[in-house]
Specification:
Blueprint lengths: L11 E7 L1 H10 L4 E9 L6 H4 L2 H11 L4 E4 L7 H8 L3 E4 L4 H14 L2 E4 L15 E5 L2 E5 L6 H14 L3 H17 L4 H13 L1 H9 L1 H16 L2
Parallel strand pairs: 1-2, 1-4, 2-3, 4-5
Antiparallel strand pairs: 6-7
Helix pairs in contact: 7-8, 8-10, 9-10
The chain binds ligand PQ2 and nicotinamide-adenine-dinucleotide (NAD).
């Protein structure tokens, strides 16, 4: 398994099965892509207040928040799955029904068409072209994705909880160190010196602590670190 970050903007993700797992996957993708869930019934997490609003109110909300999850009420059997995939032409198909034959049909149809597929009902070995959804930890723009190669989802979750604490504040550090890097470039600081300065900033306890108090505290601490490097 090779980890990649995939830009799904403008793409469609089709989720078969609207239960606990299907709704978690749909919610996980709905900020990045157009998500369609095909299922005879839907978990309450998918039937958000947005779906109970009048159509015109919903359109206004969609325009403001980006696309919502589209719910399609149907229970295709294994033979009918192919037609649904062709209809939506997704970049990724998620098999999350509680019917192994339907999940297998989703996988076969997707692989046949070169569409990525995520099977939620099997662990361990995968067919080429299939993907695992990792546990993710985010402190924008920093993202950590964690997988046990499909072997132990419970361990993936336990490790995620540890790493959550570990990367707290990394988003602010990414923003600050990215900005410093650009500034030093613009000032014509020699590449070796610039790299040394940025490396020290991201490793400095003082800067991490400063950022906890606020951006300008972090910046002040970073300036001290940078001065030390430039004055050597
Ligand atoms: C990371 C996470 C992301 C997400 O799902 O969004 C995720 N599972 C999570 C949690 C979780 N899932 C399960 C438990 C109960 C404990 C247990 O049974 O182990 C817990 C823990 C809990 O809930 O506490 C049950 C389970 N999961 C799968 C099966 C099928 C099977 O094993 O056959 C069964 C048994 C079903 C049954 O027997 O009924 C399969 C998959 N689950 C994966 C991902 C993929 C492998 C990821 C990897 O490489 O590690 C994979 C292979 C497919 C996929 O979905 O891509 C999410 C973390 C959420 C978080 O971070 O909070
Ligand atoms: N990946 C994971 O983290 C994880 C966790 C738990 C369970 N699972 C596995 O994922 C599967 C789904 O689990 P769940 O807890 O969401 O089950 P669930 O019973 O809550 O949901 C299954 C959904 O599939 C729908 N469905 C049934 N037949 C369908 C069809 N022909 N077409 C479309 N939708 C159909 C049902 O109406 C239901 O909404 C199970 O097979 C389970 O083994 C995976």
């Amino acid at each position: 398994m090779t980890p990649l970050y995939h830009d799904l903007s403008g793409e469609t993700v089709v989720v078969f099965g609207g239960g606990a797992v299907g709704s978690r996957k749909a919610k996980g993708f709905d900020e990045a892509a157009q998500v369609v869930v095909v299922s005879p019934e839907f978990d309450e997490r998918l039937r958000s207040p947005a779906d109970e609003r009048e159509a015109d109110e919903r359109e206004a909300a969609d325009a403001a928040d980006g696309p919502a999850v589209e719910l399609v009420r149907a229970a295709p059997d294994a033979d009918a799955v192919t037609d649904w995939i062709d209809r939506f032409d997704p970049a990724l198909a998620v098999a999350a029904t509680d019917d192994a034959a339907v999940n297998a049909a989703v996988e076969a149809a997707a692989l046949d068409r070169g569409i990525l597929v995520n099977r939620t009902d099997v662990s361990g070995g995968r067919d080429p072209g299939s993907v695992v959804v990792p546990a993710t930890i985010e402190d924008d723009p920093v993202t950590v994705a964690l997988s046990t190669g499909g072997t132990s989802p419970a361990l993936a979750k336990a490790l995620r909880e540890r790493i959550e604490a570990e990367i707290e504040g990394a988003g602010a550090m990414a923003a600050l160190s990215g900005e410093i890097r650009e500034e030093l470039k613009d000032e014509g600081v020699a590449p070796e010196t610039r790299r040394e300065a940025v490396r020290r900033v991201v490793r400095s306890r003082g800067v991490w602590k400063g950022l906890q108090k606020g951006r300008s505290n972090g910046r002040q601490e970073a300036d001290t670190v940078i001065e030390e490097v430039l004055n050597r």
